[in-house]
Amino acid sequence: MSGQIIGLAPGLAPSLNPWLEQNAARSAGALARAWAQKQYDQAVQDIFGYHALQLGASNLQTLAQSRIAHRWVAAGISSDTKAALFANASALPFFESTLDLVTLPFTLDMHSDPDAVLDEVARVLVPEGRAVFAGFNKLSRWGMAHMLGSKRLPERTHIYGTNRLKTSLAELGLVVESVQSGAWPNHDGLYFLIAKKRVIAIKPIRRAAWRLPSWAELPLNPFPNPNPRGLGKQKNQAEK
Question: Residue 85 in 3-state DSSP?
């Protein structure tokens, strides 16, 4: 991995890594790690470019099989020894249209503001660049158990879900190329999705940005009288 980037991060591993490090053969962390690693190894081989970034879950080597020369792993906390970059996924230190590939292993499910993360991914991706997601399915055995209070998934998990992800990607101008769900029974709680940034001339606006103005934002007289008082009388006098 390339190391010439700001914010080198010393210290311990973030909260998601211990869950991924579970060694029990049937544990959720071990199953998720093995399945997601296999999907990433296959997916990134045929994605080309100059710069690639992994956001979160540094125990997963999502860029290990990538042919892109400059690759970095970013973590959300500065104690992650496996990360080359310490950065908030919702405020990335990259210029617009600079990354060819961004991988997000369970990033949306673990971040407090996943919509802001997607905004940033859409911003930093070059046209035709790819975003590759792994995450948890809501409509699955794992997802339903989590909503009922199960401790199977990592602490502080908020499942974003594939339906919501597809809607958000469409709003941001990213096209879903492929989506795959894990096989039942071991991996039915997981999904893997690849999206591509479209080449567009106009920057897309998120649906949430559309709203009616408040009364305070309206002008004092939004509908001016085209014939103010006395104007007609003055016109008649001028004609005489």
Answer: strand
DSSP class of residue 234 equals H
Tokens 């405020």 correspond to what residue? 91
Question: CB-based burial of residue 74 (10 Å sphere; 0-12 exposed, 13-18 middle, 19+ buried)?
Answer: buried
pLDDT digits (tens, 9 = 90+) for 136-178: 998 888 888 888 888 888 888 999 999 999 999 999 999 999 9
How far is the C-alpha of 49 from the C-alpha of 61, rounded, in Å?
Answer: 18
Tokens encoding 29 = 């962390």
Please report the beta strands in the chain, taking only residues with DSSP state E, as ranges in sequence order: 51-55, 70-75, 85-86, 99-105, 125-136, 174-181, 190-197
Residue type for position 80: D
> Considering only CA atoms, which of 118, 67, 63, 66 is closest in space to residue 85?
63
For 56-68, how does the pLDDT look when each residue is reduced to its tens digit (9 = 90+)? 898 899 999 999 9
CA 10 to chain centre: 25
Q: Are 10 and 80 in contact (CB under 8 A)?
A: no
Q: Taking CA 39 as the corner, what is the angle to CA 37 and CA 44, rounded to the nearest 5 degrees?
A: 95
Of the candidates 132, 141, 130, the one whose C-alpha atom is nearest the C-alpha of residue 182 is 141
Position 131, amino acid: A
Which residue's entry shows tokens 């991988």? 103
Could you name the CATH architecture of 16-215?
3-Layer(aba) Sandwich (3.40)
Position of tokens 């230190």? Answer: 93
Three-state secondary structure call for residue 101:
strand
DSSP structure class, residue 153: S
User: Given the structure tokens 């919501």, which residue do they identify?
Assistant: 164
